[in-house]
Amino acid sequence: MSNQHWSSRYVFVLAAIGSAVGLGNIWKFPYIVGENGGGAFVLVYLLCIALVGIPVLIAELVIGKTAQLNPISAFENLSGQFRASRFWVLFGYIGVITGFLILSFYSVVAGWSLEYLSVFLQNGLLNSDAKAVEQYFSNLLDNPLQLLLWHSMFMLLTIIIVTRGIKQGIEKIISLVMPMLFVILVILVIYAIQQPGSSQAFDYLFTPDFSKIDTEAILTALGHAFFTLSLGMGAMMVYGSYLIKGTPVVRLSINIALVDTLVALLAGLAIFPLIFTHGLDPSSGPSLLFISLPNALLSLPFGQFFGILFFFLLLIAALSSAISILEPVVCAIEQKTTLKRNISTWFVGGVIWMIGVATLLAFNEWSDIRLISDKNIFDSLDYLTTNILLPLGGFGISLFAAWVLATKSNIRVSLGIDGITYKVWFLLAATIAPLIIAVIALKGIFPEWIPF
Ligand code: TRP
Q: Which residue's CA lies nearest to atom 12 of ligand 1?
């Protein structure tokens, strides 16, 4: 049994939102919207959140809360208790491995936010032209030592917070950074929507053009629904395991998902108006935030100040997410071995740091190494975790919660719902969500099998 608990329901919600809101919302969401043509993609993404994300989030929290254990032991215990197959434990293991892999590239990108925070603080891009700003980012990626420095600093911060545990570490940092995050985001949106490009940005985000949607876009939207809600690897499960009995899980899940979605849309509204005002291309991909945005900011009034705010926002959003990726892995090692929390955190953090080094070398020394369909190490890890492992984990989690937990025990009290709402959740978690995941996954693997 886990011996740690959240101090209050409010801190839990804040921590879960902290986990959900991260690089996924501020860096990834805007650029994948850009790459996939705007409004129609946003719509598909919202559907994925509603039909798959929310039911799986509820499933994950209810498993954690019932078991009060790390993802591996949770599946072990509950499948024993309810006489279900041992094969479910596989999903616990997949989750923990996925955690290792995600944090190793997450930390590298979070490191870029440290670099840009420091350069904006020193006004180091002042008087640079567009070419120089672009060169700056490619110079950074070409410099393994610089990337290593920031990646190491970010991992160090994350490790130090996690070693201190839930109440002394995670809660403290969350209560500090989350209010800042909301305030900064609102300031940035107000600043951005006053720029001349804002009506173009609204059009771009909210007017769907379905000709831009293909299978790859749908797979990206589904994968991102998992990534942005921190689903499929047991992060929310572990946060749920620190809940006290009697907390209504469904209402909280819906609120968490709503805030996360709102933040992603607000991030879009903070970025795209600047991009359009400056006449830049919204579909520039991962460098949208690190080349296009600085370019736009530098030509605007108070650009330096808003640049500092922007990259500080990115940093704290990344930090409150990174701790939630490390926590389940540490929790699993701590509960499965006799290692103390301190030692487990440094050990796990160290291994992740090392995989991270391979990830950052993908941009320079090891750029020739190609793993999945001609992608470098970094892109392969991102693709493997976001588009394959997280949906697979979510598939298992929702089936387990519905067909094992819900059918063999009474979880309605724990969910805090009854009647029709319960039936809707069950229908989604037991059939619709797993079906959507399976169809989209099959379409990705065997495109000719599924006719759309
Ligand atoms: N949701 C976070 C983001 O959008 C990332 C994240 C945190 C995550 N914990 C996770 C992703 C667990 C997958 C699984 O940036």
A: 230
